Amino acid sequence: MVLLPAPGPPELAPTGRRSRVRISAGILFALVTLVACVLLGKRFTHTSWPLQRARMSLVGGVVFFYFASYVLRALGWQKLFPAGARPDRARCLAACGAAAASGVVLPFRLDYLIKIGTLRRMRGIKLGLEAIVLSIISLGMVDAVAFLPLSISATATSSSTFRAPLILVVLFGVGSCSLLVAGQHLLRLPVIARRARLSKLLGRVADHRLGTTRDAIVAWLFLLGCWTTRAVGSTILLVALGVGFSPPLALVVLCISAAAALIPITSGGAIANVGATAAVLLALGVNSGPAINFGLASGLLLCGTAAAAAVVGVAASVVSGRRARPVALAT
Q1: How distant, in Å, are the alpha carbons of 65, 71, 97, 103, 234 from that of 306?
Q2: pTM of the predicted protein model
């Protein structure tokens, strides 16, 4: 009997080192960005923190709507898994919250790794990496379709200054809708057929089973509710900071932030959201103090409610696991 040497960990060491270096670089970049944002806020707003002059009774409503948006997002994502391999709601909420909280500061889309890792390590149905990745891609496409009513409304009510980026958001939603509806028919287009990798990726996404038509519609409704509650929260935050009640303004800010968040090299909230929202408000004539405070406050509240959603999801998962244990032992 000949014993062959088993492949050892040295082959995986370079990959592990690269991953650790990338995460360390992302954390360092995030810390530098946060410090810069704090210093910038103090310099231009003359306040120690963004919510210093806000009406705290209204801020409570903002927290409620922001938290509700993460719950609705988790419920929508759950519906995009096949019925036989669908994680429970607590796992989806924990993964969505952890990814959103880390995405506020981590650059290079490292929040996707947080989402995948959280979902795979928690108890429940064992999920393969490909199934999770395809569900995240499907979530992004259905998310873009759910965002279409808001992005179209923002495009129709905005000035020509922001018309171009808003149209890009609308086109992204229309393209995602086309891929979901047309499916394999789009792979026959010459532009896609000539590119092997793109054709293979789109083919897998098109073949990915989203469940029944009813599940897809329910997921779309949940995600539409997610963006609607996020817009309501932003509108209330504008009032709390003294900018005024303006749903169209909140829609434009939300859409521009979503467009900036598509850039994979930026820090999720610290640069993309804070910078984009402050720039939009400044361009629309809002004073620099409230504009910067709104950007910083929205990032702070989104991060806090995302972390709270992650904690609630983990706690609910642990409780359900302990309840299921006696039942399994009894049977």
Answers
A1: 12, 10, 4, 10, 15
A2: 0.78
